[in-house]
Design goal:
Elements (H helix, E strand, L loop, with lengths): L3 E6 L7 H17 L4 E6 L1 H5 L6 H18 L7 E4 L5 H9 L5 H5 L2 H9 L8 H4 L1 H10 L5 E3 L5 H18 L7 E3 L32 H9 L20 H9 L2 H7 L13 H10 L4 H26 L3 H30 L7 H26 L1
The protein binds tryptophan.
Length: 382
Amino acid sequence: MGNIILTGDRPTGRLHLGHLVGSLSQRVQLQNSGMYDEMYIEIADSQATTDNSGNIQKVKDNVIEVALDYLSCGIDPKKCTIFLQSEVPELSDLTFYYMNLVTVARLQRNPTVKQEIVYRGFQNTLPVGFMTYPISQAADITAFDANIIPVGDDQLPMIEQTREIVRTFNRLYGDTLVEPQAVLPQNTVCHRLPGTDGQAKMSKSIGNCIYLADSKEEVKRKVMGMFTDPNHLRVQDPGVTEGNPVFIYLSAFSKDKHFEEYFKNSETGEIEYKNLDELKAHYERGGLGDMKVKKFLNYVLEDTLAPIRARRHELEKHIPEVYQILFEGSEKARLKASKTLSRVKAAIGLDYRNDYDLINSQVEKYAKLHAEAETEKKTKKR
Ligand code: TRP
């Protein structure tokens, strides 16, 4: 079997720089590498309902935002099937059978879910659906026979859960499901991009995100307001670059060409800093102000975001066509998932329509019962 790639996002907000480094750029790279047979991206709207049951409108509104973000980043629906989870009901059916293969204790140990429960204040009000979403994610992955799952490290527990379900299923019912492998982004410093305030993660509710759809002015305002080294008060002070969000962003987005373009002295042709190491060294030594670094970061981000923003602007004029892409993708996805569901049900043994042995054995069972009753009746008469 060849390579089948699957990833997904919950549509609960627009996508931001964290998504771009954490997953989107890698997806586009994979898509354009051609080193795969099928590639799927799921907009996990059903999963998003597990903690938004009272706010379905939010989920619905964000489906188009996420789709626009995908397409503007370069996801090409000709190479990659984008689909809506809720349009593929076979996924729920698979989830139902997988639920029997996972213990409650195992779900309770999932570190990502544990964190999310605290974060959402679900300690005493945990919806069963939320607790079991890792199982439904196993359905998302296995329904497509996906073996390559490009994700951020927060999703590793979901992939591990999926692998366990696959192994248990195959042991109980015979070799049926494909065991997936998580693929983390190459650039290890930025598996997860911190927020503009230096907090561990970009998060909509904290308001520390730079969105792909932000205007040039918004990006600039957010960059200029970013946290840096809190002890770097005067330009001449030595500064710390490690854990400094401005430098983390630079390591995620800056390329040597940015240094050549931005730091080249137009008269002497000399390049002030040739690469990030040189810039960092100066900051650590002292004598390099935050403002100068932030202006450079803004230049780097603009270079990254301007083409994405321009494509998004065009796509926003074609909303019905974007929905159409999702519907066509969902039909294609459904076809594949329904084949897997049939295979799964047959493996479990819930395949009545094709189970001639079962029907015959029931026929024989009743024929035998009737024959015995008949003989008994005759013996009694005598
Ligand atoms: N849980 C993922 C997230 O919150 C979204 C997701 C749903 C997903 N199904 C998936 C990711 C399957 C990878 C594979 O981002």
